[in-house]
Amino acid sequence: MKNIQLIFLIIFYTAVATIISLSKPALDPQISAELTWNLITGTDAGFPIPGSELEPIRKLLPTHGAISFVSDKPFGVDIEMEKFYYDLQNYLCPLILSTKAGEKTGLAIFSTAESAQNRLTEINYSWVINWANSKGIIRKNA
């Protein structure tokens, strides 16, 4: 009985190991070595920190509390903007980015100046700092 269980376990684990080894392609050794070295040395070596695109206006935002995050479309409609939101939330932590337009202050990221003006009018916000005509800090109108 034990011999049958042993044979079954060997076959089972061999099959599992085969499936795992065939399911994922191996990493490029050069990339893997470079990433490992960067982790060991603590450098980013040209790898941008997700969300760091807005570093120029980070110092103008509050460090704690909550602000609204506003873009061309409501949150959850644009997958790329949703990914950017999560990257930005991690980058700006402990500041909380609310996906609802309702906070006194907000961060606006739009694709064009026209879409920015239309959306800001729709949600009753105005520019405080307009950076590149489509990104910046906004304030809720009274």
Account of the 3D structure:
By secondary structure, this protein is α/β, with parallel strands linked by helices. It has 2 domains: 2-41; 52-140, no CATH class. The protein has 5 helices and 5 strands, in the order αααβαββαββ. The protein has helices at 2-23, 29-41, 55-58, 79-92, 113-123, and strands spanning 66-71, 96-98, 105-109, 125-131, 135-140. Strands 2-1-3-5-4 form a 5-stranded mixed beta sheet, sandwiched between helices. Helix 4 (79-92) links the parallel strand 1 and strand 2. The radius of gyration is 24 Å and the shape is elongated. The N and C termini lie far apart (80 Å).
Summarize the structure.
This protein has 142 residues and is of the alpha/beta class. The protein has five helices and five strands; from the N terminus they run αααβαββαββ.
Number of domains: 2
The total of helices stands at 5
Round the Cα radius of gyration to an integer and report it. Answer: 24 Å
Structural class, judged by helices and strands?
A: alpha/beta
The SSE string, one letter per element, is: HHHEHEEHEE
Number of strands: 5
Strand fraction: 15-25%
**Largest β sheet strand count, sense and barrel closure:** 5 strands, mixed
Output mean pLDDT: 85
**Secondary structure: helix percent:** 40-55%
Q: Termini separation (Å)?
A: 80 Å
Give the low-pLDDT segments.
none
Could you say which overall geometry the principal axes of the C-alpha atoms support?
elongated
Biggest sheet: strand arrangement: 2-1-3-5-4
